[in-house]
Protein: MurNAc-LAA domain-containing protein
Amino acid sequence: MSQKILDNLTSLGLNNHGILIRNSEDNTLYPDGSLADYYGVIRRSKLNGFPGIIIEHAFVTNKSDASFMGNEDNLQKMGHADALGIAQYYGLSKTYFGIKSVDFSQENDYDRITVNADSNIGEPKYKVQAYDLDKKIWVTLASDSTDSTVTWKPEAKSYYIHVEITAPNGAVASYDSAFSSDIDYTKSYVKINGATWKINPHSIDLGVGYNHSGGDVLFKWQVYNLDTKKWTTLADRYSGNWITWRPTPGNYWVHVEAITQGGAQDQYTYCFNVGTDKSKTPMTLNGMTWSVKKTGIDVGTAYSSDDKNVKFKWQAYNLDTKKWSRIADWNGGNWATWKPQPGNYWLHVEAANGDGGFDEQTICFAVSTDFSKNYIDLNGIAMIDKSSLYQVGVTYSSNDSDVQFRWLQYDVVNNHWSLVSDWNKSNWTNWYPKNGTYWIYVEARTSDGVVNSMTQGVIVNR
Structure:
């Protein structure tokens, strides 16, 4: 017991001076032969069959203790700590049973009553009744129920609610409350509870909260411009309780109507001031980039726009010839392939969305490669010895599908050129050389006249 009380007292912030025992100093004994306690209050408690202790809570000579005991609330806490320690020693606990609160909430097609019981003697049974003040009759909503929640469909009127809970041991607690419903749940209904909105960079989202009796609810959204004295319908018989609005600056009434499938209606109107023009979707170009390829230059631009219908137009101005050329006309791609001749240019892009937003950007661009023509790269000559002949071929890369090849040999000893095969589309040919030292020479030519060649030395000794 002493330890439990001491633990409770020190939890209040008092100093822990421990548990002290003082035995008899004149060898007084208990009837069982054990040495008796020094203090009579403890000795006589034991002789009468119950524990006895002396509790020294604090010392008035200690500044901290004196300050603590100067507060009436702290004195009560010390008394509570003593009592709690004794209760803990005997294993005592407090029995409690009652109703903390009863909560009422509206759902779409019913009202909900929730009973919050407070009990440590088992789960109670619930009884909930409603008294109709107009009809002067009681209606039982729940009886002998284990569910703490009851749902019902009241009419639009006032009621008296009576709640009882019964514990497993028969204890009963009750709660009474007045209740008023502004909705007749027995009929089709809709009620708009309030409006909300979200201001975006280029639009305003308008929304309403509502309750209804079930089924689809349609909304009609309108705004009245107090400056121009004109109504605008944002959506008529729309299935969503949110709408996106893109107004010009001004003062407005926002008006929303709701209607159920059963014909029930409600409406809500509120004032709204708009300071920023949100009627157009901005179009912003954030910079250009490019990638130089073999066949041309891919040019692109980064952009931002809430409108998905964005189109682009690409042009180049040749600073040497003083002429504009079109790279790509209006289309949905923010990339285009450009095949310029060498020179200095202005690269220009324009962007427009479907709502009137527009932006353009220009950068300087120097080109050193002629991308206006096809290209042909020869990568190496291969040779296969077939005993009576050589098969010779060349590997290549080109953007032209109509490349032609011509093969010649040069006799190094006789200082003489001769044709192996004339222009054709095959990059392979048969060569019939005699013994000797040669140069094997291949030319490749694109359809627009770009030529490349390669030579390889060969010693033939059969």
User: Anything to note?
Assistant: The mean pLDDT is 92. The first strand starts at residue 97 and ends at 106. Residues 97-180 form a domain with the Immunoglobulin-like fold (CATH 2.60.40.10). Helices lie at 2-10, 40-47, 63-69, 72-90.
